[in-house]
Amino acid sequence: MAPLADGSIRHYMEILASAEPAPGGGSAAALTGAIGASLAGMVGALTEGRAKYGQYADFNARLLERARAAQNEFLALVDEDVAVFNAMSAAYKMPKATDDEKASRTGALQEALKACTVTPYKILDLCARTLDVAAEAIGKTNRNVISDIGVAAVCLRAAAQGAWLNMLINLGSIKDEAFAAKYREKGAKALDGALRAADSVYETVKREL
């Protein structure tokens, strides 16, 4: 199957709204993050080359680079989330008639659940890092599109929260307590940073408007 991120928006939405279990919330979170990163990139692109913001030329060059890299990472995660979910679905369908089959199935399921935790963590961590970029952009980019920084923050906040929920639903079924504790702690820390940054950007943009 061709990567969903390479298809049309309408095609993705039609599959998302269908009875197909994937793409689901994790993939949608990644797509929402990609929109946020793209908006941050747009703000940089509409600032680049403007004499008024010449003192921030180096910053805007980095903003563009980081936003485009984040956009590409998010789009890759749109499909990665579908892939790990499909692997988990395949594990659930493994035979379980004998003790050996049950053991193999349980092992495969546990590994799949871990993968289904790591992928949304990647989304959440990327949201936090991209929000840091958006926060720095205020005051250094074209003021005419400051509202778009705010929209980027809203998208990235929603993506972070969605990714966290997708982590939680899998963490509860993982038997490896050390793994679960590690990702619960890492995820909570990344989420806290993302929410703080997003809310700060949003409130700052509102005041500026």
Could you explain how this protein is built, in words?
The chain has 209 residues and is mainly α. It has a single domain (24-208), classed as Four Helix Bundle (Hemerythrin (Met), subunit A) (Up-down Bundle), CATH 1.20.120. It contains six helices and no strands. It has helices at residues 9-16, 25-45, 57-92, 99-137, 146-171, 177-208. Helix 2 packs antiparallel against helix 5. The radius of gyration is 19 Å and the shape is elongated. The termini are far apart.
Shape: elongated
Q: What is CATH's topology name?
A: Four Helix Bundle (Hemerythrin (Met), subunit A)
Per CATH, the class reads: Mainly Alpha
The number of helical segments is: 6
Into which percentage range does the β-strand content fall?
under 5%
Can you tell me the CATH superfamily? Formiminotetrahydrofolate cyclodeaminase monomer, up-and-down helical bundle
Main sheet record: none
β-strand number: 0
H/E series: HHHHHH
List the helices and strands and how they pair.
Blueprint lengths: L8 H8 L8 H21 L11 H36 L6 H39 L8 H26 L5 H32 L1
Give short descriptive properties of this protein.
about 0% strand, mainly alpha, about 210 residues, 6 helices
Outline of this structure?
This protein has a single domain (24-208), classed as Formiminotetrahydrofolate cyclodeaminase monomer, up-and-down helical bundle (Four Helix Bundle (Hemerythrin (Met), subunit A), Up-down Bundle), CATH 1.20.120.
